[in-house]
Queue: 2 jobs
Job 1
Amino acid sequence: MRTQIAIIGSGPAGLLLGQLLHLEGIESVILERRSRKHVLSRIRAGVLEQGTVDLLCGAGVGERLRDQGQVHDGFEIAFCGLRKRIDLRGCTGSGVTIYGQTEVTGDLMDARDAAGGALIDEVSDVRIGALQTRQPFVEYTRAGDTQRIQCDFIAGCDGYHGVSRSAIPRDVLREYEREYPFGWLGVLAETPPVGNELIYVHHERGFALCSMRSSSLSRYYIQCASDEVVKRWSDERFWDELRARLPPATARSLVTGPSIEKSIAPLRSFVAEPMQHGRLFLAGDAAHIVPPTGAKGLNLAVSDIYYLSRALLAHYRDADDARLQAYSEDCLRRVWKAERFSWWMTSLLHRFPQAGAFGERIQQAELDYLFSSRAASVSLAENYIGLPF
Ligand code: RFL
Ligand code: PHB
């Protein structure tokens, strides 16, 4: 098989790249390890930056997003029994859009099918090679058959546990990592959300987040131990713990119901540099992970794809490779700022087992400062709505 771009992974990064290339008449093949059904049922992110919304709309997949996405002009932070609001629009002129990653993936899959683009799912033993030549290749096995795709470039969009990153030699790749001593236990429930906007909760029992997907679908998270197991959390135990972390009036108005999804995600910060090697380009979680507190992971995957699609277009249309050469540098400038912000939001809002009384006082002082200084809230707001591409 031969194509222009071989894309590994059909998460938001891989699918969006496929769609943007298709609009420019550049051909691609997408390889996915899991089944299509599995990819379409994963519950993940919920907050889209305006830059992400604009790019998705420009890519022709904005119809449902414009119709069903909820624009939020602010969010709240609860601490010491109080709820205080960050006025995103008042601080920056922009808001964010609540629209599930599951929906984004569904819209992009539909567009892929409508375009007749190749998406081969349930592949295994993906192997990439000849990266330093003009004819790199990807090999994979499907239903016992091994195939080789010859291509011009490879996009490694296969997430944190993918194979692409490991194709960069050890002496070239540098990895930066921080693990946090806790995870998030998340629940999705068909109940009306407890607030009109998201509520991030700092509490001595641990962090909590009240989010949503629509006016009848809520998404809640609570900080849990890193070695926690989902089986130990009945719905009742989850709701009791969440209620205990909310300000009293908010806890009383919480509507509970049976969970339709419950899972635990570890929290991690991670960056791999460089994001390119020969004709391989990494994008999204394959190259970097942020803890979800800043709502940046999906948005970063989208901004990488913005840089990569632009660079590939310049290669094919103008025979100009300057942007391909600068790809890693261009992405990493924005990636590190989102890493900083996500680390900071995580440090501000979680309970750190080792922090001690001093650490807790510092968190309280920082929260107090945040709501008494316009400069501090503007700084938070401009990072939350997303720095420019
Ligand atoms: P994905 O979505 O992980 O997709 C990678 C795809 O590659 C496939 N794959 C392979 N395919 C072929 N061969 C192989 N060897 C392969 N290995 C893996 C996988 O099956 C998968 O389909 O990465 P991508 O596209 O880079 O997208 C990144 C986002 O998914 C991720 O950053 C966000 O979900 C992070 N995130 C959030 N981001 C936000 O911007 N806003 C949020 O509000 C937000 N909330 C969250 C989140 C992530 C969470 N979890 C579960 C970690 C909340 C949570 C709880
Ligand atoms: C979500 O709705 O899943 C969500 C929202 C905000 C975050 C993280 C996750 O910071």
Job 2
Amino acid sequence: MACPDQKGAARFLQGGGTAAHAVLTQLTFQKVDTKYIFVTGGVVSSLGKGIISSSLARLLLSRGYRVTIQKFDPYINIDPGTLNPYEHGECYVTADGHEADLDLGHYERFTDIRTSRANNVTTGRIYQTVIDKERRGDYLGKTVQIIPHITDEIKRNVKLLGKTGNYDFVITEIGGTVGDIESTPFLEAVRQLKWELGRDALFIHLTYVPYLKAAKELKTKPTQHSVKQLQSVGIQPDVLVLRTEKEIPPSMLRKVGQFCNVAPDAVIQSLDQPTIYQVPLGMHAQHLDDIVIRLTGADATPEPDLTRWNMFLHKLANADKVVNIGLVGKYVELQDAYKSINESLMQAATHLDHKVNIVYIHSEKLTEADVAEKLGGMDGVVIAPGFGQRGIEGKFTALRWCRENDVPTFGICLGMQCMVIEFARNVLGLHDANSTEMDTKTPHNVIDLMEEQKSISNMGGTMRLGAYECSLRPGSRVAEAYGTTDIMERHRHRFEFNEDYRERFEQAGMQCVGENPGTGLVEVVEIPGKRWFIGTQYHPEYQSTVLHPNPLFLSFVKAAIDFSDEKQSK
Ligand code: GLN
């Protein structure tokens, strides 16, 4: 069966920094006929361009091609790091420390390909580069304009990964919807690229076919209009993917093709699926990968090997036992805010032949009075990452209850910091212990900025971002979970465990079992006597994929399943 292979996972994790590093440093360009696939969207937003791009990438990879995916976002923020999760969902972090759009998470989860800063470009970054060049005088007194200067910079970025010679296919997702003012320079840039690249460039346009209940009809007019809009900026789509809630009859697909100048077999539907991971199969059944290979003239390859993918789907569909995981956080009304954690829990549970039932518990509303009622039915509890004071007391309440009742508990980033603070307050008796993020004057700053960070903070760049090495204590639960003592995981935080308190924690039973080999910073805490009580300063959820679930999530969900079985056998 598609069981998680621990060594494979360890290799995958250790590869964390290197692939991205290679992309950024390898500027010796080789001649490879890289094919560029552009994915645009029309009619409405949120159609799942990221899922279609990821599915195509999965299929091409499974046929043996070398593939990468990148996302061009038309907003003016330099990166999504500062965007409120309410606005934009989770901020994903790449191995090289880029705060990225959450679609990059989909790319990695579907493909196991490491993305990097080069895989996510925004309008803000394009303009910043052009303006910096202008200030340096690089344009030699010329008037700097959207065309050609902005469009040239977009084109340069589109081709950056392709030029490394590392890829047969570079899939570029253009964020936003055709017709948006913001997308215009991107569409103009890729229109020009089509002229330069000819058959090596291909356009896939994703649209929506609504079903009108009253008329009992599917409507293709919005698709026709959307394609017209694309044609009006000079782009002729080669493939149309129609998102639909109901099966589209073949005659209707043919009609769309005729109206839109698209080959009849290149109009395919993307029917709503019970899980996004089913989408590659639907695309393959309609030959999306074959069409792309044929139209771009890529070297032929055998049919994709989807054995392990199918095994995962089989397990997902057939798991009948449920494991209940409570997720304590402040963005519970917004599932996208914890996207990677949700996916990591689901992947781990699936590999362990269980369905995961994630119960979102609002940390702001959790009190001493209702904690037992809210957490009592949980087989495991995750304390979510986050920033700022809001909801923090609820996290302490949850943690105390979990620790005292010995429920498998996983603290991630802020969740780990809360684990440390709760332990300091209630076990070490340091009642005012806190993180200086929440209380700058706390007498017991068990979580604090490091000295060297304090000086950088004036310049603004204090966040520890991206993949860092971590050495695990031999014999610890966490080392057992990873099957190795040397790992690499990704970070996104400012504050750290305060080394001055380390000995007191260890003497009282909270062990510092993972540390950065270079700096000695504490990365993992664990209470060994408990069923499973581990906090990580890093975010293991950024490195968990369908084929390689993160080992620590596997270990946590396994402990939750064991706990559930134990309760049931009583
Ligand atoms: N706010 C905490 C810090 O900056 C934790 C961040 C997080 O959970 N990602 O250190």
